[in-house]
Specification:
2 domains; about 280 residues; two-stranded antiparallel ribbon; single chain; Helix Hairpins; about 80% helix
């Protein structure tokens, strides 16, 4: 029973996860992934900072221990010199005091040397850990930069995918049957072309009919009457009719009788000279 419940619970979890991944916005998921990567990088930097801080503290303790070791070494040497000088002077009491002080400095020196050795080992390990932490931060920084660049690339691909999906939907709505009440573009085009062809055919039939020819003749008669009326109006107004060509006269010739020379008769207006009296 318990095993069946666990399997059912695991199935429900997988089902919910599958539905969530199907319905989730890839852009939001991408932002979540980048945010998580940035948060991991921040935590890694904090850990590296702690490691480096520990290395710095060990180095400062080592430097202080080395200074203390150097001070103890100088004091021990000074105590030995002062004990030797008291011995040469024959002052046994001061010799004993300085010798005792030198031994104390020597004991402190031995203890400080051990402490320095331990601090050196710790500082070496801390330095190696700090270098590894720095390298890890640098490597993770490069990975984060690659993820950010990949994010921009994926966002561009996502926008292109959305645009392509919209174009596919638009093309499908143009090429597929939407419904009984919504005609497609091809159906509308066919309907318009049919009406246009029918209208052109009717126009050609109208041009060929007798009624259309009669209308043309009637329109021509109306145009002739209109021109005549305009000519009459221009004549009354003393305006030369530009449409009418200027009248010209040509000399007339009479055929001579057989055996007679041909003569040309011209009026005074045509010849341009007046007849002399008596002719």
């Amino acid at each position: 029973m318990w095993k069946a419940i666990k399997r059912w619970w695991a199935y429900l979890g997988a089902k919910v996860n599958s539905v969530f991944n199907e319905k989730a916005d890839p852009k939001v998921q991408l932002e979540q992934a980048i945010t998580e990567a940035q948060e991991q990088h921040r935590r890694l930097k904090e850990q590296a900072a702690n490691v480096i801080a520990n290395q710095k503290q060990n180095q400062m303790r080592l430097d202080a221990a080395l200074e203390e070791l150097e001070r103890l070494n100088r004091n021990a040497q000074q105590a030995v010199l002062m004990a030797d000088e008291a011995t040469r002077k024959g002052d046994a009491a001061k010799t004993a005091e300085y010798t005792s002080a030198a031994e104390a400095f020597a004991n402190q020196l031995i203890a400080k040397e051990k402490e320095v050795e331990n601090l050196k080992q710790m500082s070496l390990q801390a330095t190696q850990a700090a270098e590894q932490a720095k390298a890890a931060v640098q490597q993770n920084s490069r990975v984060l930069q690659q993820k950010l660049a990949e994010k921009q690339k994926l966002l561009g691909q996502l926008d292109q995918a959305k645009m392509q999906e919209q174009m596919n939907k638009a093309m499908a709505s143009l090429s597929e049957q939407v419904g009984e009440d919504v005609p497609t573009l091809d159906e509308v085009r066919e309907k318009i072309e049919t009406r246009y062809a029918r209208a052109k055919g009717m126009a050609e039939l109208q041009d060929m009919s007798v009624e259309s020819k009669m209308l043309e003749v009637e329109q021509a008669s109306i145009n002739v009457e209109a021109q005549a009326r305009l000519s009459e109006i221009r004549s009354k107004l003393g305006i030369a009719d530009a449409a009418a060509p200027a009248a010209t006269t040509e000399p007339t010739t009479t055929e001579p009788a057989a055996g007679e020379p041909a003569t040309a008769e011209s009026t005074p207006a045509e010849s341009g000279t007046e007849p002399s009296p008596g002719t």
